[in-house]
UniProtKB/TrEMBL annotation:
Protein family membership: Belongs to the short-chain dehydrogenases/reductases (SDR) family.
Every Ketoreductase domain range: 30-202
SMART domains registered for this protein in UniProt: PKS_KR (SM00822)
Enzyme class: oxidoreductase
Pfam family, one: adh_short
Keywords from the named record: NADP, Oxidoreductase
UniProt GO molecular function: 3-oxoacyl-[acyl-carrier-protein] reductase (NADPH) activity
EC numbers, comma separated: 1.1.1.100
Name under which the protein is recorded: 3-oxoacyl-[acyl-carrier-protein] reductase
Recorded catalytic activity of this chain's protein: a (3R)-hydroxyacyl-[ACP] + NADP(+) = a 3-oxoacyl-[ACP] + NADPH + H(+)
Amino acid sequence: MTSVIKMRMAERAAQLSRQLNYPKGLLHNQVAIITGSGQGIGAECARLFANEGAKVVVSDIDGAKAEEVASKIRSGGGQAIAVAGDLLKDEYIKQLVAKAAEFGGGKIHIIVNNAGFTWDAVLHKMTDKQWDTIVALHGTVPFKIIREAAPYFRVKDGEPRNIINISSTSGVHGNAGQINYALAKAGVIGMTKTIAKEWGPAFGVRANTIAFGHIETRLTANKEAGAFVEVDGQKVALGIPEKQKQAPPGIVPYQDIPLRRPGTATEAASAVLAIASPLSSYISGQTISVTGGRNM
């Protein structure tokens, strides 16, 4: 998607916001932690949230990328800080929540648990390291962030509180070669429903899951492009082999997707914004599939 189209989409969203009596933005003055927001879907979430008046906390393991996203938001007139670190380290989670609360004057309103990557293998070749890392990052880490932020959500001040956990169609339907990722992403759905049931009645906290299908990110790009993450000194290649992505002769590309194309990071982030916004104020405990119609 070109930058011109992205700008037009942002302009239309801003216009809609003003028309709906949110002249300062749908998320005006709300403090939002967005993990994995140094690039991809997370970075787009940060940008869109800031455009709607949120105070964005950009969380990423890559400090340079996190600061770049936060700096662009600030240069555009928005409010953002970068808090870089490794989510698999408990001390960083404590630091992240503390700095977010400080940035927000003692308040946190939104958590988007988006950070993650895939480390695939078929079941009988899956190592303990692959299993433990992916289950921890996609399951345990969101739990620990939410638990650490509990004092800022279990409050009755009349302000909205919102938790959005990112899942995947792998968690909803399973996926060959992703047993670790599928289990973690399925667990996220159950965790989200539990939060909605525990914190909704007394505190009005909304909690929802968004399950993405094929979105254009480094996780679905051609593996040959060379993207990787490093886990304890081991490089983990990201992406899908180009041959695996190609449609066989005579088969329509993306035939299993009714819209016949992958989604963009902007489209994915727009769904997150929609659920975080007051336009979805009566939606809680749900799993929203953003798939272009795939798996319906």
